[in-house]
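Appendix B, record 7
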Amino acid sequence: MYEWLKAFHVLAVISWMAGMLYLPRLMVYHAESPVGSIQSETFKIMERRLLKGIINPAMTVAWVLGLYLAWEAFGFKGGWLHAKLMLAFILSGIHGYLVGRVRDFANDRNTKSARFYRILNEVPAVLMVGIVILVIVKPF
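Structure tokens (predicted):
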């Protein structure tokens, strides 16, 4: 059963990351769209559906299975695991921040520039690189 749960954990992480890489990119284009325009309203729908249909469920599954696997296989021991969990917590914080930005866009209250979202778009990618290295290499 462990291998099946690990496979579903990896699938959930892939889905979560896909959404976390795509949502800020949508926000780049949304920030460039005039408030009330057809494009802006379309981006609102896309952002909401991506968040509620993919990102939120994928994050939940990734955390539930990941915590179980960390307990079952490693007893929550290992420096690499603690570092990975720290990066996953930071990624979850970015997720929460993006939830707030989706709300701001939905209420036509975005105050951030497209450039801001371009930079923010890189943060999940950097965290992902760190997490993958920690999991595969287990350097400490």
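Remarks on this record: The mean pLDDT is 97. The chain has five helices and no strands.
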